[in-house]
Design goal:
Largest interface: A-B, 17 and 20 residues
Number of helices of chain B: 5
CATH topology of chain B: Sufe protein. Chain: A
Strand order of the largest sheet of chain B: 1-2-3
Largest sheet of chain B: 3 strands, antiparallel
Radius of gyration of chain B: 14 Å
Distance between the termini of chain B: 45 Å
Oligomer: heterodimer
Mean pLDDT of chain A: 95
CATH topology of the largest domain in chain A: Aspartate Aminotransferase, domain 2
Number of strands of chain B: 3
Order of helices and strands of chain B: HHEEEHHH
Low-confidence stretches of chain A: 1-10
Radius of gyration of chain A: 22 Å
Number of helices of chain A: 14
Strand content of chain B: 15-25%
CATH class of the largest domain in chain A: Alpha Beta
Shape of chain B: globular
Strand content of chain A: 15-25%
CATH superfamily of the largest domain in chain A: Type I PLP-dependent aspartate aminotransferase-like (Major domain)
CATH class of chain B: Alpha Beta
CATH architecture of the largest domain in chain A: 3-Layer(aba) Sandwich
Largest sheet of chain A: 7 strands, mixed
Helix content of chain A: 40-55%
Distance between the termini of chain A: 54 Å
Strand order of the largest sheet of chain A: 4-10-9-8-7-5-6
Structural class of chain B: alpha+beta
Amino acid sequence: MVSTVETVVQSALDVERIREDFPILHQTVYADKPLTYLDNAATSQTPRPVVQALVDYYEQSNANVHRALHYLGEQATAQFEAARASIANWIGAPAPQNIILTRGTTESINLVARAWCDAHLREGDEILVTAMEHHSNWVPWQLACQRHGATFRIAPITETGELDLEEFGRLLSERTRLVAVTHMSNVLGTINPVADLVKQSHAVGATVLIDAAQSVPHMPVDVATLEADFVVFSSHKMCGPTGVGVLYARDGALAEVGPFLGGGEMISKVGDTESSWAELPYKYEAGTPNIADVVAAGAAVDYLTHMGLDRIHAYEQELTSYLIERLDSLPDVRIFGRAAKRGGAVSFEVSGIHPHDLSQYVDQQGVAIRAGHLCAQPLMRRLGVPAVSRASVYLYNTHAEIDRLIAAIEAAQRFFQA
Amino acid sequence: MDDLEQIYQEMILDHYKHPRNAELLADDPVLADEENPMCGDRIQLTCQINDEQIEAVRYKISGCAVSRASASMMSEALQGLPIEEANDLIEQFVAAMRGERELDPDWHEDLMALSGVRKFPLRVKCATLAWHGMAKALSERKA
């Protein structure tokens, strides 16, 4: 019995210790309010080892990659490629070549929507998305459909904010060329059954892109198990720096697909009238990449691996339940999204208080939440609201911080509703 | 007075909770339908104008406390003004919200309460939504 207890204690996340790695969290704002950061679905904070990786890179190894034949050039290239290998290993990709490094999730999606669609999307084809997609997993496909005369289809959601699986299945057909679906909604928190969706989509011959920007930072994700063709996410939501995105492409998914951006690095041979392209992943990495931030993104992977994604996920599940329970205990508060499987992004409205007034009010109490359409206007229309408020947790948040948010909401209710 | 009290002064909360003129004129056309794409706030405006003078401004708004209070105050501030003066006031008010000039105590006194909004650059658009809509409504009427 004793050993079981010890195992449990050892496996729990030491949040107080983790918080020491994030200097930004230890400040007071507006004179004396302890900063409470609950906007992690927008961007996460950066721990010391990741910041240190940036400093070390610039102080010790800075050079251009893949071309400079000198000591620093080799250092920089080795670190850059080591980060790619870490990312590949972390998400279960078979090889580093499956990882294309971009500037963010948005660029990763645009790369596929441009290059892959140019090669494969034809008039009369269909692209299927869900009603809970972020604008970045919506607009690029709309544009691709417009360019190629294809039809843009939207799978609806249920009352609980889950994907309507029956309708999703009904919308899939031999005309469906590509399915683009989020792993976890940035508004509703819903975790979609992506492995099943991939199977269904492949059964009709459709290619699948998973937007994992909200899932990869918070839970173990294994691309081999998902069997998706493309998986995209960003460094800045997983304790890494801004300006780095990942596009995982399954072996063969980009065969017969032309380049995206043209320039240096992505070529094999450049002729007077035409050129040939480099091997993957370099074919899709034109120009000098964001070397320092990629190296630091590798450090973020190491950091999260050290903390353990399953432990982070378990802790956040518990914290999210507490957040929902506390919000539900308040009068006149409505939560959007009641999915059985969900992550730590919780959107809500407080009757009579516009989300912008609420976020401004709680901000003055030191509590950072998000307010607005959250880059999901199509979903807002379906929810019947112009905007929502959202609190989203990460591994360094605490129950005491949730209590501070709740107290701030209660104060806002007294202030605006009196 | 702390920042929060500055942006949400008594006067703003009063206009927010008891908006003046917040009802469209049933028999007049909607002259402007203005939306802030950043937050989805929206105002529709109708006006009664006789002899180049604004008799009434009526509107329908969905938005935050600042945008609603500002619309309510505007409807009072513009009532009775000749169109030319109204256009001047709109221009000056928007400039003041952007920090390009001071608010003028000679304007409708309630407007002074909006000065605190200038401390919050992201909220300036809320305070100017109705005014941009009104500028469009007046030029629409001329066209």
